[in-house]
Amino acid sequence: MLELVFAPVDKWIAWSDKDIIDATMGELAKLFPDEIAADQSKAKILKYHVKTPRYSLSVYKTLPTCEPCRPSQRSPINNFYMAGDFMKEKYLTSMEGAVLSGKLCAKAIVQDCEELALKSKDVGKSSSPGAMTFLCAN
Length: 138
Fold this sequence. Notes:
Layout: H1 17-31, E1 80-83, H2 95-119, E2 133-136
């Protein structure tokens, strides 16, 4: 099963289902030439549903002016970390973005814990990073 999202939809909204399927198969054939051919001589579409939003505003579009507003996983509040598809990462408002944000959040936590351990005066003792707060939302 393969599910795709086309965004921004401005280009696609007026296209017929057939035109969207044909364009999709062409792109997939470029990505997976051993498995997919645009003419469906390899993998075949058994069932499909093209769902187009009623208004093009229902699909997010990245605007350069909005990128600085997206927070990083490490907040300015000490020991407060955030993860979610709205965070600063390369996939805007998607499942992939939420997963990547979670990984980046975990990486920030590990980095901060390692830094705290290095700063600890008790080299021979285990150091506790203190209380940490996490916000995970999607």
